[in-house]
Write a structure and sequence with these properties.
The protein is mostly helical. Helices cover about 75% and strands about 0% of the residues. It has one domain (about 5-185). Helix 2 packs antiparallel against helix 4 and helix 4 packs antiparallel against helix 7 (about 165-185).
Length: about 190
Amino acid sequence: QVDVAAMVRLFGYVDVTDTGFIVAVLSIAFNPLFWNVVARWEHKTRALSQVFGSARAACYCLGAVILLLNCVRSHCFTEAMKSQPKLEGWDYHWTYYSGLAISAVGTLFVISSFLALGFTGTFLGDYFGILMEEKVTSFPFNVLDNPMYWGSTAIYLGWSLMHASPAGLLLTAVVAISYTIAVLYEG
């Protein structure tokens, strides 16, 4: 039996009609949609490789765009959190440090994924025909599937807890749902 009263009370703090909140949701949903559509288009047409003169240059440019979009997403996420009320019962040191620890674990997964895959492995090089010698099975891939996605989600969860933000928690759920859909699409 799930007690929905606590969840209703928690999300009573969130104004989902706030422009900043809507922009954050759209930026969260847009990013994985964008990179999956562009990567599949490149795989079918090789258009980006032709425009940039090589698959590697095209992959690096797409990676730079993805990084920029992730910065925009994080900015929108943060601004949406700041514009919404905090949950007073969570604005304590233990919540802050719990969020910091969760963010640290998420950062560990994201950075170690990047180091294991390299730039082209991280930023869809396989769609450009840049293949790795073999599947990466070392840490963090031996701990969980898609560690970059779940590490990123953990970073947002930790950030939300650090700011005692119900809006941040709801946006983190949107991140998790977007990544879940991306994993299904990519698989």
